[in-house]
């Protein structure tokens, strides 16, 4: 069958868009970095706050050589799109928002994007006032994430097979069609349209500048673990169905712009409502608990987690010694993975001994592809985050033990996290396992207990005053 093009009837065409961060392809790392930096800042006059934040943004890897306008654009996008900064119109001051502080404390990007998706709507304060006016004038009131989840759930309920939508389908059948965004067409009608277009082999305009805005929202839903990807299709993540139901059933909506619908008004009149939008975001963050269930996020059976702990956190030390003795060629990745497993078990046992068994299930070895700058998310006994980078070596010599390498990213993250960042230096020999823990390596460098040399990252040498030797605790479930 020959493909024909699908186009929205001209009288219903209105292209939705929003601020698109220049760091979109690295958005998770950037948001963590900025949230960590922001959480250390105090309220200040807007001009002073902006200048200081620009300096902090420039510290992000790769930003040292970019022009100041690019840095300012980052700051604007971080503020307007993600709500990490609160502006006080009366006092003309800015400060870190509770959203930024929560992200810095929890280090939970999945949770962050759930809140973001939960609140995102058109119109919203993430748009410039002139764009808000255009949306109001054509009667748009639209929560895209809720609509997409309703549509995908209806498709799932209708047919048990996997159903997904593409970025192009989301663009042309949902985002840019006034019948949808103004509430005239519901999910059933859009689902029927998508299926009809598929049956008729319709083609869509896939150009990047056309599909990018709908594509961004689908990506943010993916980061929030609400969707899974199957090729070019975005499908509902059934492991998050409880959260998805809460999205679908929620009736909250920022109503600060409602009074302008059907009236003549000046763009300047929208400013107060635009600022109130960010107050609304904070309240949304307070009313719902989206903290990530790490076990579900990793696709694991919660009932088997205790067994998982024994496998990943309680590898018998004697068994590993035997592996060393029988295999001289143990690969570097195996060494690193095993070191992380042993430290994972140590952290679980430390919390158990400290009567904080409620935190054990939240301790997790983080996937390497996230490149967060540390290996394990753990906790202090008072529930504060502990970010652990594990450096494991098989060696018999003291000089090897007191040296390790950090990547540029790891050093930068250590600098951002300060006392929350720990190095667990682990050396495994045929006769012993030795562990040395360094808290806040950047501060230790300033004290002189730790030396560094730049070499495609940082080569670190430390002495006994840089931290403490501790016994590696084996997990006992």
Topology, pairings included?
Elements: E1 4-5, H1 27-38, E2 44-45, H2 46-57, H3 68-80, E3 85-88, E4 93-96, H4 98-106, H5 109-119, H6 129-137, H7 144-158, E5 164-165, H8 167-175, H9 178-181, H10 187-199, E6 202-203, H11 208-223, E7 227-230, E8 233-236, H12 241-249, H13 271-287, H14 294-297, H15 305-313, H16 317-326, H17 332-353, E9 364-365, E10 376-379, E11 385-394, H18 398-401, E12 403-406, H19 408-417, E13 421-428, E14 433-439, H20 441-447, E15 450-454, E16 458-462, E17 468-470
Parallel strand pairs: 1-6, 11-13
Antiparallel strand pairs: 2-4, 3-4, 5-8, 7-8, 9-10, 10-11, 12-16, 13-14, 14-17, 15-16
Helix pairs in contact: 1-4, 2-3, 5-11, 7-10, 8-11, 15-17
What can you see in these coordinates?
A hairpin with a 3-residue loop joins strand 15 and strand 16. Helix 2 crosses helix 3 (68-80) and helix 7 (144-158) crosses helix 10. Residues 304-317 and 327-334 have low confidence and may be disordered. The protein has helices spanning 27-38, 46-57, 68-80, 98-106, 109-119, 129-137, 144-158, 167-175, 178-181, 187-199, 208-223, 241-249, 271-287, 294-297, 305-313, 317-326, 332-353, 398-401, 408-417, 441-447, and strands spanning 4-5, 44-45, 85-88, 93-96, 164-165, 202-203, 227-230, 233-236, 364-365, 376-379, 385-394, 403-406, 421-428, 433-439, 450-454, 458-462, 468-470. The protein has 20 helices and 17 strands. The protein has 477 residues and is an alpha+beta fold.
Helix count, DSSP H or I runs of 4 or more residues: 20
The 3D shape can be described as globular
Strand proportion: 15-25%
Stretches where pLDDT is under 50 for at least 5 consecutive residues are 304-317, 327-334
What would the average pLDDT be, to the nearest integer?
86
Largest sheet: 6 strands, mixed
Number of strands: 17
Rg computed from alpha carbons, rounded to a whole number of angstroms? 25 Å
- The share of residues in helices is 40-55%
């Amino acid at each position: 069958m020959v493909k024909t093009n699908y186009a929205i009837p001209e009288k219903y065409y209105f292209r939705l868009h929003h601020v698109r961060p220049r760091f979109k392809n690295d958005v998770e790392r950037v948001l963590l970095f900025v949230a960590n930096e922001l959480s250390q800042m105090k309220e200040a006059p807007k001009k002073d706050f902006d200048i200081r934040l620009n300096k902090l943004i420039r510290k992000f890897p790769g930003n040292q050589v970019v022009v100041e306008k690019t840095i300012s654009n980052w700051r604007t996008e971080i503020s307007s799109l993600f709500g990490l900064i609160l502006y006080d119109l009366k006092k003309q001051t800015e400060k870190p928002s509770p959203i930024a502080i929560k992200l810095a404390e929890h280090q939970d990007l999945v949770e962050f994007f759930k809140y973001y998706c939960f609140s995102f709507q058109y119109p919203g304060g993430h748009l410039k006032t002139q764009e808000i006016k255009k949306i109001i004038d054509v009667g748009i009131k639209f929560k895209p994430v809720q609509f997409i989840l309703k549509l995908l759930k209806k498709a799932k309920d209708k047919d048990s097979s996997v159903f997904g939508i593409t970025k192009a389908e989301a663009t042309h059948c949902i985002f840019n069609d006034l019948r949808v965004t103004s509430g005239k067409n519901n999910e059933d009608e859009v689902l029927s349209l998508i299926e009809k277009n598929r049956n008729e082999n319709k083609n869509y305009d896939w150009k990047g500048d056309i599909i990018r805005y709908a594509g961004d929202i689908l990506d943010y839903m993916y980061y929030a673990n609400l969707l899974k990807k199957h090729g070019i299709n975005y499908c509902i993540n059934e492991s998050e169905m409880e959260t998805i139901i809460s999205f679908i059933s929620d009736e909250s909506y920022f109503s600060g712009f409602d009074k302008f619908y059907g009236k003549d008004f000046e763009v300047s009149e929208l400013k107060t409502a635009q600022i109130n939008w960010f107050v609304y975001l904070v309240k949304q963050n307070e009313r719902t608990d989206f903290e990530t269930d790490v076990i579900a996020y990793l696709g694991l059976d919660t009932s088997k987690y205790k067994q998982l702990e024994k496998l990943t956190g309680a590898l018998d030390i004697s068994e590993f010694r035997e592996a060393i003795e029988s295999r001289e060629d143990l690969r570097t990745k195996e060494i690193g993975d095993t070191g992380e497993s042993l430290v994972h078990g140590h952290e679980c046992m430390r919390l158990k001994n400290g009567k904080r068994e409620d935190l054990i299930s939240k301790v997790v070895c983080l996937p390497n592809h996230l490149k967060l700058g540390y290996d394990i998310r753990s906790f202090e006994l008072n529930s504060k985050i502990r970010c652990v980078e594990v450096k494991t070596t098989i060696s018999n010599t003291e000089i090897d033990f007191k040296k390790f390498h950090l990547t540029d990213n790891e050093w930068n993250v250590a600098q951002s996290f300060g006392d929350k960042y720990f190095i667990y230096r682990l050396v495994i020999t045929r006769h012993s396992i030795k562990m040395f823990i360094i808290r806040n390596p950047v501060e230790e460098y300033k004290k002189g207990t730790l030396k560094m040399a730049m070499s495609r990252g940082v080569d670190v040498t430390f002495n006994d005053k840089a931290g403490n030797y501790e016994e590696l605790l084996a997990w006992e479930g």
